[in-house]
Amino acid sequence: MNAVFATGSKQPSWQTIAMFALGFWLSGSLIVDFVLMPGLYAAGMMSQSSFAIAGYSIFWVFNRIELLCAALVLVSLLALRGTSNLYHQVRRWAIFLSALLLTIAIIYTYFMTPQMSALAVQLNLFDPSTELPTEMVSMQGGYWLLEVVKLVAGATVLGWCYRDSRRLT
């Protein structure tokens, strides 16, 4: 029992976990937003009736990864709250921004992705529609607004964690 709880045992580096989760999440978001989706659009897949199902499948997986990363970042920052130099200065802001990131991931997972997929699904096979519904256009605007907020907040928290880890070494 003493071997598990010995004072010399290595603790997980919560800053490293937070930085890895943020880096993985933000880079994945950039790849999905600026490589995968434009590639599908250029290939003509968005004009096919099966795109809503394919898009939902892609975002279903990615949204769950986003939830996991956001929760990991929030837990890491809460675990570091009393042990890091960073959190004496910007502790509340870092936790607030990580909670905001988790909220954005929840909005994507449980509200925006299902609603956008439902709007895009083609239910009438005999009347193919080639134009986007007006609700879809406004939801895409909301998606891009949340995406910018997510990237700015995530980059800010990542920068704070990186700056603090450089001070500790």
Termini, distance in Å?
A: 31 Å
**What integer value in Å does the Rg equal?**
20 Å
In terms of DSSP E residues, the strand content is: under 5%
Give the total of domains. 1
Number of strands: 0
Profile the largest sheet.
none
Secondary-structure-derived class: mainly alpha
Q: Uncertain regions: pLDDT < 50 for 5+ in a row?
A: 1-9
Order of helix and strand elements from N to C terminus: HHHH
Q: Helical content, roughly?
A: over 70%
The gross shape turns out to be elongated
Q: Write down the overall mean pLDDT.
A: 84
Treating each run of at least 4 consecutive H or I residues as one helix, how many helices? 4
Domain TMEM205-like: 21-122
Protein name: TMEM205-like domain-containing protein
Keywords: Membrane, Transmembrane, Transmembrane helix
Pfam families: DUF4149
Could you walk me through the main structural features you see in this protein, from its secondary elements to its overall organization?
The protein is an all-alpha fold. The chain has one domain (14-123, 130-168). It has helices at residues 14-42, 51-79, 86-120, 134-168. Helix 1 packs antiparallel against helix 2 and helix 2 packs antiparallel against helix 3.
Short account of what is shown:
With 169 residues, this protein is mostly helical. The protein has four helices and no strands.
Which labels suit this protein?
169 residues; 76% helix; mainly alpha; elongated; disordered N terminus
Blueprint (SSEs and pairs):
Layout: H1 14-42, H2 51-79, H3 86-120, H4 134-168
Keywords: Membrane, Transmembrane, Transmembrane helix
Pfam families: DUF4149
Domain TMEM205-like: 21-122
